[in-house]
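To fix ideas, we now present one chain and its tokenised fold:
***
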Amino acid sequence: MRVTQYGLCLLVLLVTSQARADILWMHNGDRLTGTIEEIGDDEVTIKLPYSQTLTVRRDAIKRWRLDKQEQPKPLTKTGIPLLDSPDEVNAWLWTGTADLNVKLKESTKKTNNINLKASTEVANLDWRYTLDGEYIYETSNSVTDSHEYRLSPKLDFFFDANWFLRSSVEAEYDMLDTNYLNLSYATGPGYRFWNDKRRRLELIAQLGLQQAYFTPDEWEYSDLFDERIINYPVVNLGWDYRQPLSLWQQRFELFSKGSYEKFIDQPSPYLTRNQTVNGNLGLRYYFNDHLRLSWSSELSWDDSWLDYGGGRESLGDKEWRHTVTLGASF
């Protein structure tokens, strides 16, 4: 009876240790059970319980299972960890963020501002799909000052771990302005210095076309433009940066994102759009893995002027905004 009890205990220990081990399933039907020590671009190193450490080529592995999910996983060219599978073509990662800013102020005038930003990203080895959206609503003394929607889908194709090609569309719809719609189409190369779930630095250069849509009667009695849809060829330089920081044993993140546009042709001899800058710089504090508080300083600058009747009138607009937002990520 005692031998039988010892045998059962030994069997339970063996099964438990095997269930908690890392597992490699091979294309030839074999299965290796042990502890994965290193996952490289071409090889995987696994320590077997009753043998020496074994190095296996990645192309010989069908799939794997990691016992400890917190241990490092391999990265694809887009910087995402593989989802328990070396089949990089089918390894997808879905992430998203949302930030809400609401400002209610009463002084000489009563202002209510609502700003909602959301972004989602789906990526695998070769492709990355990004969708950014923003909603802006501002009132002053019960009069609506701004009511805008912004939407920007992007598609990236990666040639290797650093270089990629981006194609993007940006749409801005203003419900109050005679210039009610702006559409931008652009494509060009990008270079990624690093990228993972919390850390990123990318630079993008694009050549594109920006279209400004005006109401039908906007230029009816003006010689500035002959059409209500105005085309502006542009060169765009963009950046996307985020870097985690550890301050006072708390989790912070420094971030900056934006673009610089240079207009390379002017459809009107009187109105000149020279350049625009839209960007932000800020700091985020993470309460946990999902909830965060952000402070950001945003710059919106439009450098343009009007040459008409022998004089020059500046039409440029520069605005600095400082916001505190509550957000979530997954």
Remarks:
- Residues 1-19 have pLDDT under 50 and may be disordered.
